[in-house]
Design a protein that fits this description.
This protein has helices at residues 16-28, 46-55, 57-66, 73-79, 85-97, 119-161, and strands at 71-72, 101-106, 112-117. It is mainly alpha-helical.
Amino acid sequence: MEEGTLKSPRHRAGTAAAAANVVGAAARCDYGEADPFQWDTREDCEVRQILDRIGDKWSLLVIALLDLNTLRFTELRREIDGISQRMLTVTLRQLERDGLVKRTVHPVVPPRVEYQLTPMGRTLHTTINALVAWTEEHQNQIAAAREDYDLRTAEASMAAAL
């Protein structure tokens, strides 16, 4: 984290003025059940930890690959471009710990280990599919917004340089 940035919207360390503005704005607004501060960014917030886990790129890819498939470690590694053996091992262990992936060791020589989604993991896959569908539906709008933003910031930089 960069020096002077806030750790969470309600964290008052760092830039005092920025923290006061964020906290003050939050106090003035009634978000109802859609409270954006419900997921605290502290390390001990379980919801935040789970969201961090399932939202990382490797977990998403593993969950997508295991939908309706039982795969061995080597098959997963071959399918996920750029993942290291260590990172895949860590990701699978974390997903197993969270109850999203089931690991089965077959007592043969050499040992054969297979991974599959648990019933809870399959429900998460449904949610991920909805996110992917939304992304595909809006990718052109997002690309246009990025282009517009880049153009505006480039023009502002050029104007400031003059």
